[in-house]
Amino acid sequence: MLVLQLLASGLQTGALYALTAAGFALIFGATRLFHFAHGATYALAGYAFVLADHAGLPWPIGCLIALAVAVAFGLFTDIAIYRPIQRHSASFFTVFVAAFGVVIFIQSALEITFGRSFIAVSSALTHASQILPGLYLAQVFWVAIAVTVLVFGALGWFLSRSNSGIALRALAENTELLRAYGLSARRFSALAFALGSALVVPGAVLGAATTGLSPVVASHVMLVSLAASVVGGIGSLRGAAFGGFLLGIAENLVVAVLDTQWSEAAGFVVLFAFILLRPSGLFGTAVAR
Amino acid sequence: MSPILSVRGLAKHFGGVAAVQGVDLDLPAGLITALVGPNGAGKTTLFNLITGAVEADTGRVMLAGTELARRTPARMARLGVARSFQDLRLFQSMSVQANVLTAIEPHAWFWQPGGRRAHARRLQATEMALAETGLSALADALAAELAYAERKFLSLARILATGAQIWLLDEPASGLDPASRARFSALLRKHAGQGVAICLVEHNLDIVSALADRIVFLDQGRKLAEGEPQAILRDPALAAIYFGERRA
Amino acid sequence: MSAYLLNLAELGTIFALLSLSLNVLIGYGGIFSVAHAVFFGVGAYAGAQIALHLAPDVLLAALGGGLAAGVLSFALALPALRVRGEYFVVASLGLQMVATTVFTEAQGITGGYGGLVGIPPPSLFGLDISSPRLFLSVCIAILLAVMAGVHALMRGSFGRSLMAVRDSESAAEAFGKIVPILKTLAVVLGCIIAGAAGGLFALQMSFVNVESFTLDQSVLIMAMVIIGGVGTLLGPLLGTALLLLLPAALSFLPGIPPTELGAVQQGIYGLAMTLLMIFRPGGIAGRAEGRR
Fold first, then answer.
1. What are the structural domain ranges in chain A?
2. Average pLDDT in the C285-292 region?
3. Which residues does A261 contact at the CB level (< 8 Å), separation at least 6?
4. Cα–Cα distances in Å, from A42 out to A48, A135, A212, A225?
5. Which terminus in chain B has less CB density within 10 A, N or C?
6. In contact, A114 and A46? CB cutoff 8 Å
7. Shortest Cα distance from C146 to chain B (angstroms)?
8. A275 to each of A269, C34, C230, how far by Cα in Å?
9. Which candidate, A262, A265, A227, places its Cα nearest to that of A246?
10. Could you give the CA distance from residue C244 to residue A37 in angstroms, rounded to a whole number?
């Protein structure tokens, strides 16, 4: 039953990773930007939710605040950091360093403001009950799965039905199109940043309610969403979602064999193997070269 | 005159698209051969197949009668086949002089063999190539800071310095002003006169008719015709293809 | 000089070696590794083991550390040959995360969280050089020798070849460059120097544990190179000096509780990295118009 239990928590972790990674993939697809600061968006949204909760606000308001913070921060990085850089430099490295600087800055700002330790919101949802002999599930498990399914459903509907969504998807699938669009791609870049950043909110809120948040979550989530996107195939939404689940499950299942200290490393072993053996990822077509 | 580089039946498919289909090509020493054809005719791909930048499906490449299997760009460069790129691909962050010097330092070790004397020879070859292309005064400028024409001449200087006997040039003179173009053409003529086999891809038919000794006409990956410039350029059927009137 | 300043100077020399070596990868090779602390760590553990079990000789520790890091650097060279740009950054991040866990778990070699303690005071060819002044002089001598060597290599054909590959891999190949060998050499060279710095670090601290070899440390080294100026000789040294003096400077500022110093320092260099990339991507010592 241990394996089943681990699989369940793997699914729960994976669901949240999948959403965050999908946000990263969406932004990458539409803008070709490796949004390293995506993890900072996650951390800020999570902390915003915790603050709202501690202020006694009801959780739907907290979620809205987290959403507003995430979208505002995503748009801010696009407008205030990436665009000025891209005006003078096409080098990925400049963008990467700037985004990395943002992550470090946000992380230390959170550390100074909230301290280094975990903070969390307490919720009745996290009380686990026995479902099968030896398998304990909290309601938050079902919430996580349901929210993920719902959000992916809504996202899929948006990308296949609405005009802006179709345009976004077309951009993600065809770089040439992005070039041909030229300046008007700017508008879609803002849309992608807003939407992609919004996707961190469920993960951040549920993360705050379950494992809790600490400042290093910014770099951890950055790493995980990067890893999931690479494993799934950069720019592929389906791939990122799949990669997120895969990493979440790998992280949890490895505990059945090794100490818990290896759980984070397990995900990165998977990542490293993918980069060496199949850099285009599971669903990717174009190789990195 | 026997060709120093010959290509037989070179072919390449990308997915379902046949980019190059069984092309034969001979490059004799001392002649300038122009590859002409509409966009997508497979001219640049042909260069990539010859140098091994892209692996060919089938076909052979012979250098002075010896077949070269398993070609890689680095190996072809060592065998004296130099190429340029349509988008130049200069070493942007390096000086003009370093761009040329590094082009003739192919050894992948911490230093080049031959010591100071060999280094002095390479410096001299660099200086000569810069002098020939009129870039001596700009030797210390960064490649990224050069004007358009200077950049084109720098890409030629890299090739000149190598002393390669076969040059594959991808649109070397396009976009040049008339004076620079004349200077560029004179350089190519001079080196062809010294026995270099030059093959160039060119869209501008004025340049082609002024410069080329022979024309090879490609369309949709096939060689349609080959011969004297005037004969090819006057052929109404080829002109129709070139200017976009597709056959039924 | 006070003991505090001597200690800072020793660390400065060691970090100068580190940033200098990372500059070979980032500045010249275009290989953007975020795993440099891994090789620093490998060198430090090797140096510590040599000092504990053989002799605490400075040169022996530096050579042993360099050798160990050089051998393991193939773990970084492999992805460098397969992928570039963002993909390589991600691969090196992965390597860093895995290595941190290995450092923590391989207690037989690294001592785990507790680390390796009781490293004897440094010597050189049997002579005791445990006095800070002597040790500092030896470190500076090593730094100067490495700087001279790296400078000569980077100004010579090797440096040109590396930069050519960085600027345009396909063009470099078209002029006969054997790209895999060049990239591997750059990675191995950079990691050997990082490992040697690790060996010195073990002797300087007389204690090593995993906390010095985490992602944060890799980022700090990277920040030194970037803030100073990538691809320049003096930039990394300048960046090292600035970032090492930052905590000291901050501790003189009133109003910052000592427990927050680390966070404030990180916040400052994070901000500095972002602002520099927007306004002066070449770094402080770099060209104002930036890299292309």
1. 2-277
2. 52
3. C101, C104, C105
4. 10, 30, 13, 10
5. C
6. no
7. 15
8. 10, 15, 26
9. A227
10. 25
pLDDT value at B55 more than 60: yes
Torsion of CA A171, A176, A180, A185, to 10 degrees: 30
Query: In chain C, where are the structural domains located?
Result: 3-215
Q: Is C182 on the interface with B (CB under 8 A)?
A: yes
* Predicted model pTM: 0.88
Tell me how far apart the alpha carbons of residues C262 and C243 are, in angstroms, rounded to a whole number: 12
Nearest CB to C278: which of A81, A91, A234? A81
Distance from CA of C208 to the nearest CA of A (A): 20
Q: How confident is the model at residue B245 (pLDDT cuts 50, 70, 90)?
A: low
| Predicted ipTM of the assembly | 0.91
| Residue B195, token pair as written in the block | 């026995």
The Cα-based distances of B134 to B146, B151, B236 in angstroms read 13, 11, 40
- Report helix, strand or coil for C65: helix
According to the model, what pLDDT value does residue A126 have?
Answer: 64
Q: Is the pLDDT of residue B248 over 60?
A: no
pLDDT per residue over B209-223, tens digit each? 889 999 999 988 899
* CB-CB under 8 Å, C94 with A268: yes
Q: How many CA atoms lie within 13 A of C261 on its CB side?
A: 15
Least confident of B190-204, C140-154, C222-236: C222-236
Flag if C174 and B94 touch (Cβ within 8 Å): no
Amino acid C48: pLDDT: 93
Nearest residue in A to C33, CA atom: A93
- Do B and A touch, 3+ Cβ pairs within 8 Å? The answer is no
Q: Do C266 and A107 make contact, defined as CB atoms within 8 angstroms?
A: yes
**How far off is chain A from C101, nearest CA to CA, in Å?**
6
Closest CA relative to residue C291, chosen from A289, B94, B158? B94
Q: Which of A112, A113, A222, A270 to mutate to test the interface with C (most CBs of C within 10 A)?
A: A112
Measured CA to CA, the distance from residue A188 to residue A174 in angstroms comes to: 14
CATH number, span A2-277: 1.10.3470
Chains touching C by CB (3 or more pairs below 8 Å): A, B
Please indicate whether, in this complex, the C-beta atoms of C272 and A101 are within 8 angstroms of each other. yes
Return all residues near B136 (Cβ < 8 A) that are at least 6 apart. Answer: B127, B130
Q: Quickly tell me which residue has 């966009």 as its tokens.
A: B39
Distance from CA of C235 to the nearest CA of B (A): 17
